[in-house]
Amino acid sequence: MKKYKWIVFIFTALASLLVLGPGIDKIPFIPGSQYSDLLLTHYPNVIYIQQALREHHTLPLWSNLILGGYPLYADPLSSLFYPPMWFAWLFPAPIGLNLIIIIHIISGGIGVYLFLKKSGYSFYAGIIGMLTFSWMPKLYAHLGAGHMTLIMAFCLIPWLLICLIPEQMNDKRKSNLAGLILGLIFLADPRIYPFAIGVLIIYMLVAHRHNFFSKIGIISKQTLISLTLAAPLLIPLLKYAGLSMRSSLSMGEMAIYSLPPSRLMGMLFPDLGGNQELITYFGAFGFLAVVLSCVIRPIHRDVLLWLAIFVFSILYGLGSNFIIFPILSEAPGINLLRVPTRIILLAGLAVSVISGIVVDRLPKSQNKSVLKLVLVILCTFITLLSVGIFLVLGTQLFEVTVGWIFLVVVTLLSLGLFTYKWRWRWAIAPVILLNLIIVNSTFLEYRPLNAVYSHDPILEKTILDQSTGIRIYSPSDSIPQFFAASKNLKLANGINPIQLETYVGYMEKATGVPQTGYSVTTPPFKTGNPALDNIGYQPDLELLGRLAVKYIISSYPMQMENAEPIYFSDQLYVYENKYARPMAWLQKSQDSIGVEYGEVRDYSFSPNQIQILASGPNQLVISENAYPGWVCKVDGSDTEINPIDIFISIELEPGVHEIQCDFLPVDLLIGVFLSLLALVSIVKPVIWN
């Protein structure tokens, strides 16, 4: 039997590889979409980290590739402290990134299988739960959007559930593993952590027989272990978020992509190729399993916990359309989150578990008449609803047809499973797989890098010849971040969910583009069309010059004095900023940026370090964000940093000096120390016993 199970696991893994494997060296996109977070953020981060490790033999804590420099170690999307991501650094991007995603999706499905098995359900229940989870349409829609950290963190939750099973919690050697998994979830993506904590609380309160205070103690202990383990990211993130635009999100900004109630119809009829944030389809059998679990009492008792999680996730996902989200969004930490519909992933997990339980319990149900009546009514209702939608709307024929066919098929299979006991059990699995593969194929396509962005060789030569010590500004995002990272170009603009408030304010003045609320891009794009949105806004070339912006590259012509046009093509206009300064300069003023400045003798920038040779008496200004953590020495002696505007600034005495600035954040050292303590608390019981 064990060999039999391994064959099933291998088959499932191969099925995933057959679908995802051909795109392992390409970039995932939702069909028709121009953007993928894997390309915009994760790919550039991996390239930068690999370059730092290869050329400088150091792990980069600071990145000056975008946004005037920012703390990479405090950015959750960098995944610097998530151990599985280290594996991705060993492979060329994007191969390593895609490989780590595939591994997480497969392991998440295996986690659901093991959870159901250890909870006392059959092998077949575990297989159905595994398939429903591993091929969840919302999961693949997020894969198409490039949300890899979201996927990694979510696929760890089934393993958290395994650690919460009473027999695991009662084993002293394994009792702290839940805290370990929770910590890894935070390190993978803190946005999933509140959902995982919710699962911990609900499962402990409902599924365990400890007294109430004992349950609260276990919950508190595991939460404390997880937060201590995640301290290398948690502590820096709290500081970074507090200094960012993220800390001032309005209710409307937090509730973006709230699920419209009409979208609940997507549970019946898939929104093929739709927005990843609004997907509510869990497969035809998943929907049927939820319905049956509500009406068949023996099944209802087994899935009450998961029905509660399912209902709560859907209600929270309604966002501003229901009262739960506005209330909970006031809680500390939750008020930093956006997009409430991402909790619907948790509803998908609940559906996976419910599906497995229904397959296990349905043949044993004694309510024959009730079950047959429910299935007949449901099949009739779905047919009439499908016809009605098509006649009234006259559109979405394929979506309605796919939803109707699979709902009818799984309803008949469920009737057969009940009537003929286990004879029909194998028929359900391939139907589930076929259903979900058809739907998922509309959410995912892979594109090679050369099909995503075709750079102009003349433009590349013009910029790369002088790329050292300069920045580029593009009001139309004409130089993608992944291309800039591959060519080691520095951008004054950029895309990142967390941006320093001071830098955003500076860039609002420098670019002339108004900042109306929160945006993941600097400069913001009002309608989401970078090629056109910022036409007519004139930048302040002096302010951009202080950021060492030598080139302004746009998809449209710009009228700017003191900016010399140097290259035009069909889609690009390149201007040279005559006010551009070097990355470091000398001035007399100690309180503000002076109009007159002198050049330093020499300087070099590398990950975590800036080295400069300059003479005094002068004020040295470095065109880098003065973020807490920078430590500067003049001739080997510590010196005080006195920021001017947003920049690092140091006062120099008379003479020639060697200046070295290192990025050595104390909060990271504290976080690493606390994390090691947490690891000891987890490992010690295992070794001791």
Features:
7-stranded antiparallel sheet; alpha+beta; globular; 27 helices; 689 residues; 4-stranded mixed sheet; single chain
Commentary on this structure:
The chain is an alpha+beta fold and 689 residues long. It has 27 helices and 17 strands. Strands 11, 12, 13, 14, 15, 16 and 17 form a seven-stranded antiparallel β-sheet that branches. The protein has a four-stranded mixed β-sheet with strand order 5-8-10-9. The protein has a two-stranded antiparallel ribbon with strand order 1-4. The mean pLDDT is 88.
Brief sketch in words of this structure:
The chain is α+β, with helices and mostly antiparallel strands. The model has no long low-confidence stretch (mean pLDDT 88).
